[in-house]
Design a protein that fits this description.
By secondary structure, the protein is an alpha/beta fold. The protein has helices spanning 6-15, 27-40, 50-56, 59-72, 89-98, 112-128, 159-169, 193-203, 217-225, 235-251, 258-280; strands at residues 19-23, 44-49, 79-86, 102-105, 132-137, 141-144, 147-149, 173-176, 181-182, 207-209, 228-233.
């Protein structure tokens, strides 16, 4: 069923695993992720950035696609459709109106008071509709679609500010920037585990780890132990699908049927997602 993230993340946190947010980019991503979740009997969060929604034909197109595929595949596991890095109150409302069951309002580039006020406004609307809300503090580095944060701008979340934001807004889950990066890492990721531990004990609600691509398993396990119940992955599925397309086309210069090169891309995404579900511990938890 289509549900919000609230119950799935609270269950994950109390049982010590994380639910993956896997980002949609097109039809094949949507198919692969839903198939992986059903096969693994795993709850799943479908992440949709504003850029990806534009590419796919708008929020309503995405919701229609997800609902129809869920029917077609007889999906029984909990699925959330989540706006990733929502840029404004208006975009969040538009997504909810289209049928999204969850939204992230990313006010991380604003001063604390403005981030709190904006997040609170989104929570007030979302919670009357049963929609869950994720907020962010600090700045996650790297690039995802329109969102670009260079090394100088990237900043760790301040624990006391996290407590203040979570208490003042009533958000369902929370993404503190702690050194993870969107896109491939330059060298080994360096996550701020001391900050993480402190933030977990101060806020209590499920934490969200962005930039899940390329984080070593030992760090994933530590992050889960320190309160993370949601881990976002996009680039890793993109890399595996691009590799499959490249290899398939390279192997046959006469190939032109998209089903013949996007089919292998879909299989590659599915394999990536299944690997992450097992690593995060969400397999067989639905
Ligand atoms: O919001 C989406 C994620 O944070 C994706 O990060 O592309 O580095 O896996 P990633
Ligand atoms: Zn992100």
């Amino acid at each position: 069923p289509l549900v919000s993230m609230k119950d799935m993340l609270n269950k994950a946190k109390s049982e010590g695993y994380a639910v993956g947010q896997f980002n949609l980019n097109n039809l094949e991503f949507t198919q692969a992720i839903l198939q992986a979740a059903e096969e693994e009997k795993s709850p799943v969060i479908l992440g949709v950035s504003e850029g990806a929604a534009r590419y796919m034909g708008g929020f309503k197109t995405v919701v229609g696609l997800v609902k129809n595929l869920m029917d077609e595949y007889h999906v029984t596991v909990p699925v959330a459709i989540h706006l990733d890095h929502g840029s404004s109150f208006e975009k969040c409302v538009e997504a909810m109106y289209a049928g999204f069951t969850s939204v992230m309002i990313d006010g991380s580039h604003y001063p604390l008071e403005k981030n709190i006020a904006l997040t609170k406004r989104v929570v007030d609307v979302a919670h009357t509709l049963g929609v869950s809300v994720e907020a962010e503090l600090g700045r996650i580095g790297g690039q995802e679609d329109d969102l670009i944060v260079d090394d100088a701008e990237a900043a760790y979340a301040v624990p006391e500010e996290c407590k203040e934001l979570v208490e003042a807004t009533g958000v369902d889950c929370f993404a503190p920037a702690l050194g993870s990066v969107h896109g491939p890492y330059k060298g080994e990721p360096n996550l701020g585990f001391d900050h993480m531990k402190k933030i977990d004990s101060l806020v209590g609600i499920p934490l969200v780890l962005h930039g899940g691509t390329g984080i070593p398993t030992k760090d994933v396990q530590k992050a889960i132990a320190f309160g993370h119940a949601k881990i976002n992955v996009n680039t890793e599925s993109q890399i595996s699908s691009a590799k499959a397309v490249r290899e398939t086309l390279d192997a046959d210069a006469e190939m032109y049927d998209p089903r013949k090169y996007l089919g292998p891309a879909r299989e590659a995404i599915k394999a990536t997602v299944i690997g992450k579900m097992r690593e995060f511990g969400s397999s067989q938890k639905a």
